[in-house]
Write a structure and sequence with these properties.
By secondary structure, this protein is an alpha/beta fold. The protein has a single domain (7-241), classed as NAD(P)-binding Rossmann-like Domain (Rossmann fold). The chain has helices at 16-27, 40-51, 67-81, 104-132, 143-147, 153-173, 191-194, 198-206, 216-226; strands at residues 7-11, 31-36, 57-61, 86-89, 135-140, 178-185, 238-241. Strands 3-2-1-4-5-6-7 form a seven-stranded parallel β-sheet, sandwiched between helices. The two termini are 29 Å apart. The structure holds NADPH dihydro-nicotinamide-adenine-dinucleotide phosphate. The site of NADPH dihydro-nicotinamide-adenine-dinucleotide phosphate has 30 residues, from helix 1, strand 2, helix 4 and helix 7.
C-alpha cells in the first residue's frame, strides 16, 4: 500500500487522531499539509514527525469554520504541491451539556467546526479532484453520530450530519473516481477524552468487547487504507473503529 507522490490535507493535525493520521499518511509516502486553530507549536511538531518519514510537510494556521482561511490554505497547497489527492476532515471539538444547558452559541460552534468545516473543505477541493479525475475524502465522524449520546446533542448532530454529507458526496462524485467515506471512532484516548471522569471511562470500557480503549493509531491505520488505491471501490461507507462497541 503506497501513497507515494500523493498530497494530503488533514485538518486539525496538531494533536490526537489528526496527528496520528498525518504520520500514517506520511509513512505510506504522502506529502502532508495540516492546519490548526490554536495549537501552533504542536502543529509544527506534527510536521517535524511527518518530515522524518522522508516526505514534504506543511503546517498552516486555518480555522476550519473560516471560509477565507480555508480558501487561502487550499490556494497555497495547490501552488506548493501541484495536486491535492486526499482530504481528511478530522478537526473537531466538543461542548458537552444536557440539552437544556446547551447554549445556541455552543450548538453553533460545534456544528461550525465539525460539520461546516468539512463541507467547506470538501467544496473547496471538489473542483480540483474532479479535474484530477480522482481523489479520496475521509470524514472523521463518531459512533455517537450513529447511535446518539445523552449530553452530546450538538456533537452527535454534527457527527450524524457528517454521515449524510459523506453519503451524498459519494453519490455526487463517485462516477469521477472520487471516493468519500466516514470513519466512526469509538472511545479513543486523546486530549478530547482525557478530561472525562474515570466513572465514564470505566463504564465505556465495560461496554467494549475488546476490553481496551482505542488509540489514535487504530483510527489512522484505517484512514491510510481508505486513502490508498487498494480502497478504490469503497465509497459512501461508515466504518466504526471502536473495538466492537457499536455491535
Ligand atoms: P483533540 O481534541 O485531541 O484534537 C482536536 C484537533 O482538532 C486539534 O488538533 C485541534 O487543533 C483541531 N481543531 C479543533 N477546532 C479546530 C478548528 N476550528 N480549526 C482547525 N483545527 C481545529 O481531538 P481528537 O484527536 O480526539 O479528535 C479528532 C477527531 O476525531 C474529532 O473530529 C473528534 O470529534 C473525532 N472523534 C474523537 C473520538 C475520541 O474518542 N477521541 C471519538 C470519535 C470521534 P487546535 O488545538 O489548533 O484547535
Amino acid at each position: 500500500m503506497s501513497l507515494e507522490g500523493k498530497t494530503a490535507i488533514v485538518t486539525g493535525g496538531a494533536r490526537g487522531i489528526g496527528r496520528a493520521i498525518c504520520i500514517a499518511l506520511a509513512k505510506a509516502g504522502a506529502n502532508v499539509v495540516t492546519c490548526y486553530a490554536r495549537s501552533a507549536e504542536a502543529c509544527e511538531e506534527t510536521i517535524r514527525l511527518v518530515e522524518e518519514c522522508g516526505v514534504k510537510g506543511m503546517c498552516v494556521k486555518a480555522d476550519v469554520s473560516n471560509l477565507e482561511e480555508i480558501t487561502a490554505m487550499v490556494d497555497t497547497v495547490k501552488k506548493e504541491f501541484g495536486t491535492i489527492d486526499i482530504l481528511v476532515n478530522n478537526a473537531g471539538i466538543t461542548k458537552d451539556n444536557l440539552i437544556m444547558g446547551v447554549s445556541e452559541e455552543d450548538f453553533d460552534a460545534v456544528i461550525d467546526t465539525n460539520l461546516k468545516g468539512a463541507f467547506l473543505f470538501t467544496k473547496a477541493l471538489s473542483r480540483t479532484m474532479l479535474k484530477q479525475k480522482g481523489g479520496r475524502i475521509i470524514n472523521i465522524s463518531s459512533i455517537v453520530g450513529v447511535r446518539g449520546n445523552a449530553g452530546q446533542t450538538n456533537y452527535a448532530a454534527s457527527k450524524a450530519g457528517l454521515i449524510g454529507l459523506t453519503k451524498s458526496v459519494a453519490k455526487e462524485l463517485g462516477a469521477k473516481g472520487i471516493t468519500c467515506n466516514a470513519v466512526a471512532p469509538g472511545f479513543i484516548e486523546t486530549d478530547m477524552t482525557a478530561s472525562l471522569p474515570d466513572s465514564v471511562k470505566e463504564a465505556t470500557l465495560a461496554s467494549i468487547p475488546m476490553k481496551r480503549l482505542g488509540q489514535a493509531e487504530d483510527v489512522a491505520n484505517l484512514v491510510a487504507f481508505l486513502a490508498s488505491d487498494e480502497a478504490a471501490y469503497i465509497t459512501g461507507q461508515v466504518i466504526c473503529v471502536d473495538g466492537g462497541m457499536a455491535v
